[in-house]
Structures are given as C-alpha cells and as structure tokens.
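Interim report, section 4.2 (structural modelling).
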Amino acid sequence: MAVASIQVSETPLVLYTLRRADDALILGHRLSEWCGHAPAMEEDMALANMGLDLLGQARELYAYAAKVEDKGNDEDRFAYLRDVRQYRNLLLLEQPNGDFAHTMVRQFFYSAFADLYWRAMIQSADATLAAVAAKSEKETAYHIRHSSEWIVRLGDGTAESHARAQSAIDHLWAFTGEMFHVDASERALIDAGIAIDPASLRASWLKTVADVVDEATLALPKSDWMQQGGRDGRHSEHLGHLLSELQSMQRTFPGATW
Amino acid sequence: MATPNTPLWEVFIRSRNGLAHKHVGSLHASDTTMALQAARDLYTRRGEGLSIWVVPSNAITASDPSEKGMMFEPAESKIYRHPTFYEVPDEVGHM
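Predicted structure of the assembly:
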C-alpha cells in the first residue's frame, strides 16, 4: 500500500493555479459527501450539481498547472498523489459538512467570493485562466444564488433553523479572511496582470454577505480574528481524513482505471 | 416527502425556441424561487431546456378519471374529424 507523493515545482503560476484547483476539488469533494444523504432528493441533486461544477473547474486548473509545470505531472497525480501539506486550498473549504446549515454557510461564504473573483479574472492577462474564469463565473453565479436563498430560508425559518444557521456563521467566520490574503508569490502575479488582488473584492463580498445575512435575520460576528495557513499547506485536522478517502484507491492500486 | 412546508410543484420545460413548454415531472419545494431552482437542478442537467415553468400542483384542475366515458368516448366515433378521413384529389397537390 501507499504510493509515494509526487514532487511539485511550485513556481508562482503553478502554485497559484494549484491553489484555485485545490479550492475547487476540496469543496467539490465535500459536496459529493452529501450524495444520497441530503435532506431531500431535490437538494441532493442541487449539491451534487454544484460539486460537479467545482470538479470541472478543478480539472481544468490542474491540467493547466501540469502544462505550466511541465514535469510530467497531470491532473490525477496532483489530486491523488499529494499529501496534506502539499495541498493549497482555503481552510474554509475543507471544514466538515456538519449539518445542512454548515454546508450552506460554507458554500455561501465561498461562492460570494468565487463569483466576484472569477468575474474579475476574466480580465486576466493569462488566456487560459481568463477562459477558466469565464466558464466558472457562470457556475458560481448560480452557487451564490442557490446558497443565499437557503441562508435566508434557514435564518428566517424556524427557531431551530435560525439557531443552526447562526451557529454555522459563528463557526465558519474566522475562515473567511484567508480568501483575501495575498503572499509574495501571488503578489508577483498580481503585478503582472495575471492574477487579480482579492483584497480589492473584500468590500463587495462583505456587502453581498451582509445583505443576505441581514435579510435572513442573522448576524455576522464582530470578531475580525482570522485563521489562515491553507495556502501554505498548514491545514486543519479535517483535510487528512478527506484525502485518505479521496486518494485511497490510487494510493493502493496505482494507475487503476475502470 | 410531502410536508406542509414543501408542497408539490409541476415542472414544464421548453427545450427550444418555438416549441411549447412540456410537462416533465414534479418536485417538492418551499416556494416559487426554490421550486424554480430545484427544477433547474433536477430537469435541465443535460441541457434539456431554455425555459422553465413551475406551477403549484394544487393550481391544476384535472379531469376526473371516472368520467372518462362521458369526457372522451364521444370523440372516438367521429373519425371524420381527422384530416386523414378525407381523400384529397390529385389536382390539389401538396396541402
């Protein structure tokens, strides 16, 4: 058992692309965990659809990272043969599904960001990233709509759903700051016009989130202490468990296909 | 899962411009917005549609199956109502 992990040459563009690919893969995988378990068949399909949108985004980004890196890696090797510390996704996205409110709040916080982010990235100087952005923006536009409708209904629903939604917001809030963080590697791409500065989206994101949370009769936490580390491979204890399930087949039977 | 909070909706999809919306199935949802989203997620995953209607199932008035004799049998003997009943003279050509 256990195939060794690959080495990745993380030039700024490779690292940047892997970060976005990992975001999409990990959140997509989390959504896939609901398959067959959602509160109703309608929502089971909605969650799986969003998961498949994200998986499609991840595949395009991994394929591009492989092309840019040019070291013989491919999308499967990036997904299946990197360890926890090599994953670059946001901590928010690896957080467990919890109850339905946790899943929806996580989706809402991220989609509200991703929709703005991909829309801005359509202007990227990198033609491939701009094309991924154009496709992804249409998908995330629906994700933000669907999740925000649920936030309103959970918050403004019953006492039970209100309490669960508020609890999810309080728990996940500290993971939202990482979305807007930029390190030196990414700063170089921003200066080159390849990436956009996520900090420039923060005010719009906050307005979108605050408006929905307000309509839902919920409240955003006052705390501005934010957790980070995912972009550098310092993850919560949850990601290892997720990857052990995601990777077990390829680690045990290398190159297995069906 | 028929609960008072998630009533039944009938879904109609128009697949192309110029065609009529066609009934494709039903779903449960709390309100019009969620019904439309669920219809999108359940019934247009393979590019089936350009337009969706959702209608509360209880807004549909249906004929009574026990009255089908009265309702539908009288039409069965009126074969002259079908255009194929009439012989078109050759001189007419294509109609």
